[in-house]
Amino acid sequence: MARSADVPDLVSRARNGEPRAVARLISMVEDSSPQLREVAATLAPHVGRAHIVGLTGAPGVGKSTTTSALVAAYRAAGKRVGVLAVDPSSPFSGGALLGDRIRMQEHALDPDVFIRSMASRGHLGGLAWSTPQALRVLDGAGCDVILVETVGVGQSEVEVIGVADTVVVLLAPGMGDGIQAAKAGILEIGDVFAVNKADRDGADATARELRHMIGLGERLAGAWRPPVLKMVAARGEGIDELVAAIEKHRLWAIESGAGLVRRERRAAEEIEALAVEAVRRRLVADPAVLGGLAADVAAGLEDPYQAADRLLAAGGV
Amino acid sequence: MARSADVPDLVSRARNGEPRAVARLISMVEDSSPQLREVAATLAPHVGRAHIVGLTGAPGVGKSTTTSALVAAYRAAGKRVGVLAVDPSSPFSGGALLGDRIRMQEHALDPDVFIRSMASRGHLGGLAWSTPQALRVLDGAGCDVILVETVGVGQSEVEVIGVADTVVVLLAPGMGDGIQAAKAGILEIGDVFAVNKADRDGADATARELRHMIGLGERLAGAWRPPVLKMVAARGEGIDELVAAIEKHRLWAIESGAGLVRRERRAAEEIEALAVEAVRRRLVADPAVLGGLAADVAAGLEDPYQAADRLLAAGGV
To answer: What is the pLDDT of residues A188-245, one digit of tens each?
Structure first.
């Protein structure tokens, strides 16, 4: 474990924009430092200012390129930017692959850009509690905008990204996107859709199909209508329009009250995840108990519900 | 909720191969029927015989086609087959999209094939407890082989599939598979790799890259070396070889003891998931409590850890 840190000092330095202090705080969050609670308590009064933008889409649609182009655009507007890249990693190794982070190197030396990759560390729900904590650090560090990028569009990504203030869903022509998008439930969570690589064949068809599918859903009067943009992120084409669409959604969310509803939902999920995780740790604290129950269930001597009852009883829950 | 059922009768009919009894039992599992525990207890003595084969891979690699071809092969060998298609669904609608299930229709009238799609029903970890219960039903219903197919290769899919007795990872040429596979951690969980659509350009290169990446991992003496096959599932080419590789792995797992280790790990994860889910339900039972805490956290009046403590206290945990 890391040595004990002076948390108020770290938070104060992070708020002054010291990248190392920000990095240290996120590491404490990721590694479940014993000082995690102190970090959360010290940050609490300073969070809630950042606009959290989630980016998701299938592998190959250009998420990293788009994130990088958005960072450049926000920096040009003088904003402090945080980037959280959430990588589903192996359940066994716990390591995140940072290959495509290389594209972000152009921003690595900018003191007003904080970039961090997070792995899921091997259990379902891991990201559900660590991602919000890392967002809290970046928010407290004075970021105006935080871009959260996920690899893939699985259920866990959808849940991690679904609570961003604005969710941008990226697609690319000719990937059978329509049905895949629907499968992963991203049609319902997208606030802004962008068809990237729009210089390729089929971009218009993908945009059209998408508009059609979005149009199928019922919307109440005054509800947000997700725009469908086209862009070529690698050349910076359409990025200004994407930034404008994100800003328009941000203002709509504030005005309509929908933004507060979403932030409270995000807080509720965060609280629930922290509470459940605390209980989970208590339940698996003694591997011998769980191991013995598992052997009984695998041998057919006991059903898993009875075993779960015994696990709860053993944990005093 | 569904009407109360005669569980022992249902289980007995399922064991006789009545598709409607099997379907009813899985529905009870999916809908968290109050009789769930009775179902589990009644099934317990009858499970543990089926060989559970997980299939995973990125969208578009041909999972449904391969599953269908495997079903045909196992049926030709006289085996009873279960298919569980796990669809990550929207966190909001809770519905599973069954579009590509249509390809399975050719087996729909075969009384010795049970096919079921499962959605994740809107919360992280939902599949972690419902999938094993559904497997238990199919196992108890006398299936010799159960094919579990996931959409996508996100963290949740990896965890759901990672505890199958044999994990088959499908890839296709030219999808940037190598790096994507590594990202999702499927290199570590694959027992058999199959490059589908091997009549396309790049199949040899994909197989080669895969063999190289697999070779990079250290393996102990006597450890299983995952084979890399090539096939064209849509034409049935290579399916016999895939069945043979799965069988070889099954026998190795029994002989080496690795199979029991994995089944006990699966049981442990199942027990943990059931226990955690029981606690989670208790914690969110009163939405007003969580809602009030969430409003405080969103307003910056409280940090999420304090709120989680209060949630646990309110739930008597």
So the answer is: 788 999 999 999 998 998 898 888 888 776 667 778 999 999 999 999 999 999 999 9
Architecture in CATH for domain B48-256: 3-Layer(aba) Sandwich (3.40)
Nearest chain B residue to A152 by CA distance is B154
For the whole model, what pTM was predicted?
Answer: 0.74
Residue that is written with structure tokens 């989970």 in the block:
A280
Mean pLDDT of B28-53: 88
Rounded to whole angstroms, the Cα distance separating B35 from A284 reads 27
Hey, where are the domains in chain B? 1-46, 48-256, 284-314
Interstrand relation of B81-87 and B145-150 (parallel, antiparallel or unpaired): parallel
The upper half-sphere exposure of residue B35, i.e. CA atoms within 13 Å in the direction of its Cβ, equals 18
| Residue A142 falls in which region: left (phi positive, over 0), alpha (psi -120 to 50) or beta | left
Chain B residues touching residue A317 (CB < 8 angstroms): 275, 279, 317
Q: What is the CATH number assigned to the segment(s) A47-256?
A: 3.40.50.300
Distance from CA of A195 to the nearest CA of B (A): 18
What's the gap in Å between the CA of B292 and the closest CA on chain A?
A: 9
- Predicted-complex ipTM score: 0.82
Query: What residues of chain A, 80 to 139, have a C-beta less than 8 Å from chain B?
Result: 87-93, 97, 99-100, 120, 123-125, 127-128, 132-133, 136
> In whole angstroms, how far apart are CA B310 and each of A274, B33, B123, B302?
11, 30, 22, 11
- How does pLDDT run across A229-265, given as a tens digit for each residue? 999 999 999 999 999 999 999 999 999 999 999 999 9
Bridge pairing between strands B192-195 and B228-230: parallel
Locate tokens 């096919």: which residue? B115
